[in-house]
Design a protein that fits this description.
Blueprint lengths: L1 H5 L8 E3 H20 L3 H16 L6 H12 L6 E3 H23 L3 H21 L3 H14 L2
Antiparallel strand pairs: 1-2
Helix pairs in contact: 2-3, 2-4, 2-6, 3-5, 5-6, 5-7
Length: 149
Amino acid sequence: MKLMKQIICPISNEYVNERVTRINALLAILLTATAFLLNSVLFLIFLTADFYTRAFTNARYSPISYLSHRMVNALNLNKKETDKAPKIFAARIGFIMSLAITVLFLLQLNTAAFAVGGILIFFASLEFVLAVCMGCIVYNYLVLPFFKQ
């Protein structure tokens, strides 16, 4: 856990409910797994479009985010605010990964699609189970070094 305290994330003055982002991660896991289990690209296309919506537009237009909000309310989970910027960065990574999975799946490069899908499921599982944002780790080691002076 000491490593997580040293990680630098992108920051903003906007906040989101961490409970919603964790359920978003669960739904991403379920959609990705379902796509592979049913051998259906439709779930991947939906997931890619949803990641795009969350990463580049207002998250309230995201069906997954909408469903996650409804689930948080139905389960009466208390609100826990967290910085929005790392979640947007993570959604952008999710968009790139889900787009790659979709393209690989359509090209019938199943092993590569499964490998990228496994990484996406692993990252989303860390968020859902442990509230570990891989977006922050990726940002810290792959993006931030290029902007340090």
